[in-house]
Amino acid sequence: MEKLTLKSSPLAHGTITIPGSKSLSNRLLLLSALAKGTTKVTNLLKSDDVYWMLKALETLGIKYQVNESQDQALVEGNGGIFTLDGKYDLFLGNAGTAFRPLIAALAFNRGDAEFTIHGEPRMHERPVGDLVDALNAIGCEIEYLNEKGYAPLRIVTKKDNKSLDPISINIPGNISSQFLTSILMVAPVIGTQVTINLTSELVSKPYIDITLNCMQKFNVEVEQLEAYKKYVIKPQSYLSPEKVIVEGDASSASYFLLAGAIGGDVTVQGIDMTSTQGDKNFVYALEAMGAKISFGEGFIRAQKNTELEQQTGYPLKAVDLNLNHIPDAAMGIAIAALFCPPGSKTIIRDIYNWRVKETDRLAAMANELKAVGAQVVEGEDYLEVVAPEKLKAAEIKTYNDHRMAMCFSLVSLNKQGVEVTILDPKCTSKTFPTYFTEFNKIHGK
Ligand SMILES: O=C(O)C1=C[C@@H](OP(=O)(O)O)[C@@H](O)[C@H](O)C1
Ligand SMILES: C=C(OP(=O)(O)O)C(=O)O
């Protein structure tokens, strides 16, 4: 297995331009496909997750051109819901933002078709049952091909068998916000009014703001009767805005901001605090840990709190926070905990759904934090990390999880001379193939 050893240096200085957002890229591609007109999507993320969405759209007959550097796509919209006949096989890697949104989009296809959708082994362990069951309850035909509640799936659709009566969909929100995103994105083009009721507390709420914001860019309005609980969507068409720009990825930005907070001064460009991406709010968790945050148009900057470091000997201080709203960036706070005074305890709460992501992230984080010397309590839905006196050099298992690799790279910012080895560093290709090249630009500077 490939490995990458990072020498320790407590310094991180510089400016990084963050590649496009995965969440925005895949939403904007799907909406461009469902829209009337042609859309130029610029600053598209070039990564595995976006590749799988593009591949799927191609299989579904959507015509598009991608430029040579693969950061721009010109998509010819279908002018509404898919109207496909025939058999289709879609492999979607481990891209939740392709897999979940396409389930509802295909379930409402208006044609005599059969879609088989599958992905990497881990995608078959990530739940989709709440979404599938909610759609089947209103007459869709989605079958589990293997284990109930999980992919692979077969979706069968028939021409003209959809009634035009208003639809009311009940769906739990506590496992993944991507289920609600999936239904929201297809709802306007089904041809009838759709009401969505969340039957349990929604996780990862800001991702719904991203979804609604993208839909608005395509001229569609959703009535929010109760925020994150009840939505009504009238029949509408997505109208291409002709050009949409993908903002930099706020989750990708979080690693560099954390590096600045530990190692000196790092600015990320291509994202700012006006973004709809909830992971921008990672900066408030960093601020609570003592970091100095500033921002303006097109950038966010994180600096080390040198007064705090003079007082305590450490750049950060421990926190106890509920980070349900920033599930991806929150993993960085578990790493930040290592840079707090020895013996101090950081607690991250309400993060049960870390367990159903690229790996069981609560277990993976706990294992690897222990490997570098921290004391860890892995709760069912929380993580406690006690900063160690001395870090240990370790080979970090990354569990085919890009965020494990990116998070643990930051352990190399220690001033104890302890190096860190990242196993399978190329797993960052899911959302950030150039991560280690960018990290090298600031680390040790
Ligand atoms: O809709 C999205 O773009 C995402 C939603 C989140 O998932 P959950 O809603 O499953 O927490 C997040 O973790 C994922 O990386 C991207
Ligand atoms: C959970 C993630 O991805 P996905 O979109 O596959 O859910 C992630 O990127 O951290």
Question: In summary, what is this structure?
Answer:
This protein is α/β, with parallel strands linked by helices and 445 residues long. It has 13 helices and 23 strands.
Can you describe what's shown?
By secondary structure, the chain is an alpha/beta fold. It folds into two domains: 3-19 and 247-442, Alpha-beta prism (UDP-n-acetylglucosamine1-carboxyvinyl-transferase, Chain), CATH 3.65.10; 22-230, Enolpyruvate transferase domain (UDP-n-acetylglucosamine1-carboxyvinyl-transferase, Chain). 29% of the residues lie in helices and 24% in strands. The chain has 13 helices and 23 strands. It has a four-stranded mixed sheet with strand order 2-15-17-16. Helix 1 (22-34) packs parallel to helix 3. The longest helix is centred in the middle third of the chain and has 14 residues, at 250-263. The radius of gyration is 22 Å and the shape is elongated. The model has no long low-confidence stretch (mean pLDDT 98). The structure holds shikimate-3-phosphate and phosphoenolpyruvate. Residues 94-97, 328, 357-358, 403, 431 line the site of phosphoenolpyruvate. Phosphoenolpyruvate is lined by residues 94-97, 328, 357-358, 403, 431.
